[in-house]
Fold this sequence. Notes:
Layout: H1 3-11, H2 17-23, E1 29-31, H3 33-43, H4 54-67, E2 68-70, H5 86-94, E3 99-101, H6 105-108, E4 112-113, E5 116-119, H7 121-129
Parallel strand pairs: 1-2, 3-5
Antiparallel strand pairs: 4-5
Helix pairs in contact: 1-3
Amino acid sequence: MDTNLWISYLISSRLLAIDRLLEEKKIVLLFSPESLQEFIEVVRRPKFEKFFSEEDVKELLILFDHFGELVKVESEVEVCRDPNDNFLLSLAKDGQADFLITGDKDLLVIQEFEGTRIVTFKEFEEEIKD
C-alpha cells in the first residue's frame, strides 16, 4: 500500500478492514527503507497534527513491524509517469507482490507491472472476497 492509503488508515475508519485481513493472514505488508522513510516524513507534516496523534503513528509502526516484511530493493524501475512513484514499483517487483494497493492515478493507470496488479483498496477488497 502506498503512503496516502496509510494516511487514510490513520484518519478514517474506511480502511480498518486491513486489520482483519492482517490478523487472518490474508495479506502481508511489504516495505522498503524508502517506503518507510516516506511514510515517516509525511506523517510528520504539520497539516496532519489535528487528524492523528504520535501514538497513533507508533501503533501503526508496530503493526508494520508485526505484519510487514522488509524487502531489499535492488531493481531500478522507470515506468511511472510520476518518477517519485517508481520506488513503489521497484518494491512490488523485488517483493514479488501480488497487488500494489493505491489511490494514485499515476500508478493505477499502469494496471499491472511485472506480475503485480495495481488496484484501489476497493478493487482489492472485491478481488479477495471471491
